[in-house]
Amino acid sequence: MIQIKTDDEIALMRQAGLVVAGALQAVRREVRAGVTTRDLDDIAERHIRGQGATPSFLGYHGFPASICASVNEEVVHGIPRADKRLRDGDVISIDCGAIVDGYHGDAAITVPIGDVGPDVVELLRVTEQSLWAGFAAARLGGRLGDISHAIERSLRGHDHNYGIVRNYGGHGIGTEMHQDPHVLNYGRPGRGAKLVHGLALAIEPMVTLGKPDTVELDDGWTVVAVDGSYAAHFEHTFTLTDDGPWVLTAEDGGVAKFAELGLTVPARG
Ligand code: MG
Ligand code: MG
């Protein structure tokens, strides 16, 4: 079942989105060599609770933290640990969710630590760009496949053959963090659910420098690239309005990024 939200419910999701944006910003400021992934989790939880919100992840199917912290070949769902210290040359995906009055926001960034090499810098850039290409392709009355296709096409337009992870994808979001529909990061346009007013989606391309195959570790959570290659993961929650896409987990609603893509959307609070 796809949950359609009222404007008032979307407004609550915007509040949750801004809490997530703030939490990720607070964490990003502290990402450096020597910091543990548990330290970063503490920062995120403190920020979320300080805003009067609740962490989405903590306790979700027993997940023990408020962020997922996935380092290097870890793609998603890494568990923050007090003995996992970041080192120069690492990359870390930080995924975070928050609940305001029962409504969720969900977003992720991947951040380099020190010198990571140009191929990894490019992996991060290309992955984030594909997320925005997905939003830019979304139109009221369009189809879910338009987003999936735009993400894939964006990722394929490079000399390097990136691994587009197929086992995981984006999702509907609202009164639960994960709702229908599942959103593939590849596919054909004009297929799938109709994009309508009140639909909210978390879009999250996961991309590796090598093969797309992943495996879950024995901890029951951490998903790693089978070939051990570096992975990147970017995510935002968005909805569609009469004036275009509104990225609920971006502080400016997406205005700056869309401008880079030649798309004008209204500034929003
Ligand atoms: Mg997420
Ligand atoms: Mg998500």
Describe the structure.
The protein starts with 6 loop residues before the first helix and ends in a 9-residue tail after the last helix. α3 runs antiparallel to α4. Strands 8-7-9-14-15 form a five-stranded antiparallel beta sheet. With 269 residues, the protein is α+β, with helices and mostly antiparallel strands. A hairpin with a 2-residue loop joins β14 (236-241) and β15 (244-247). It has helices spanning 7-30, 37-50, 118-136, 144-156, 255-260, and strands at 54-55, 67-71, 74-76, 91-100, 103-112, 163-164, 170-172, 179-183, 200-203, 206-208, 214-216, 223-225, 231-233, 236-241, 244-247. The protein contains five helices and 15 strands. One magnesium ion binds at residues 95, 97, 106, 108, 235.
